[in-house]
Design goal:
38% of the residues are buried. The protein is built from twelve helices and nine strands. The protein is elongated. The strands form two sheets. The protein has a seven-stranded mixed β-sheet with strand order 5-4-3-6-7-9-8, sandwiched between helices. The protein is of the alpha/beta class and 277 residues long. The structure holds S-adenosylmethionine. The site of S-adenosylmethionine has 23 residues, from α7, β4 and α10.
Length: 277
């Protein structure tokens, strides 16, 4: 069987399982089975597949048919131009989080704190593009922290990135000129309506703090001023309906210059604030 034939056969199977981008997923999984970068797949399509490649593709498709996310099957996700290892213990980095990176890099910083670091994608993307800066990534998941530390090593950033267990600010000492976080923000009531890839396969603690979805922002707002240098910046990813509530929480803690930034679809995505001088 050629790779093209395998691809043609896979697409209707994925479509029948209700997978939105069946052609895209079939291609990404085929590139993974052939151990090729996705952009090289087209050239390999006329080639016959070896039995181990056929078996690898079948295993990947079988996993995808259970609605396992592609990134958990391939073990990797491209984010801000770099590949991050992704496991069932980490949130699959989302493209909309790149808005936060772009804003973080728009001004100078030397010392960065990332709360709820997951794969480390925010911390490590910022450090990679800001040579000389150092950072600390914390999470309440020890398993996620192992993945983040591995990503730091793969990206050659282990000398500038440290990681530790912390319930938001509880184990944090000192001040930072930039604090970033993409916390869990889905309200409990919205969980049943999520796509199976998210609801059934991503870590619950990465998705929801329970209740109204704002508990993490309350903790982050309460601790931010005590951990920012004068004039330091706080950047928080939010769900599209949470801008006003999160802005009010930050204002209530004395943070200033509060702004809400949209994502590429025009939906509110990041709240930023500055500590007083
Ligand atoms: C939405 S995920 C974001 C992961 C990563 N920063 C990203 O943007 O892809 C939220 C992260 O917060 C972590 N988390 C949940 N509760 C926490 C807590 N109380 N303290 C610290 N981290 C927490 C989760 O384990 C998860 O890694």
């Amino acid at each position: 069987m050629t790779a093209a034939e395998a691809l043609r056969a896979a697409i209707p199977r994925l479509r029948a399982a209700g997978i939105d981008d069946a052609p895209g997923d079939a291609r990404r999984l085929l590139a993974h089975a052939l151990t090729l970068p996705p952009e090289r797949l087209t050239l390999a399509l006329p080639d016959p597949m070896t039995p181990p490649q056929v078996a690898a593709y079948e295993a990947a498709l079988a996993a995808r048919l259970t609605r396992k996310p592609v990134a958990q099957i391939t073990g990797a996700r491209l984010f801000w131009g770099r590949s991050f290892r992704v496991t069932p213990d980490t949130l699959d980095p989302r493209p909309e989080t790149e808005i936060l990176i772009s804003e973080a890099l728009s001004q100078p910083f030397d010392r960065l704190l990332d709360l709820g670091t997951g794969t480390g994608c925010i911390l490590l993307s910022c450090l990679a593009d800001r040579p000389g800066a150092t950072g600390l990534g914390v999470d309440a998941s020890a398993a996620a922290l192992k993945v983040a530390a591995d990503n730091a090593r793969r990206l050659g950033l282990e000398d500038r990135a440290a990681f530790g267990l912390s319930d938001w600010f509880s184990a944090i000492e000192g001040r930072f000129d930039l604090i970033v976080s993409n916390p869990p923000y889905i309200a409990e009531a919205e969980m049943p309506g999520l796509a199976p890839e998210v609801r059934d396969h991503e870590p619950r603690m990465a998705l929801t703090p329970g209740g109204d979805g704002l508990a993490a922002y309350r903790a982050l707002a309460a601790g931010a001023a005590a951990h920012l240098t004068p004039g330091g910046r706080l950047l928080l990813e939010i769900g599209p309906t949470q801008g006003a509530s999160v802005a009010a929480l930050l204002a209530g803690q004395g943070l200033r210059q509060i702004r809400i930034l949209p994502d590429f679809d025009g939906r509110d995505r990041v709240v930023l604030a500055t500590a007083g001088r």
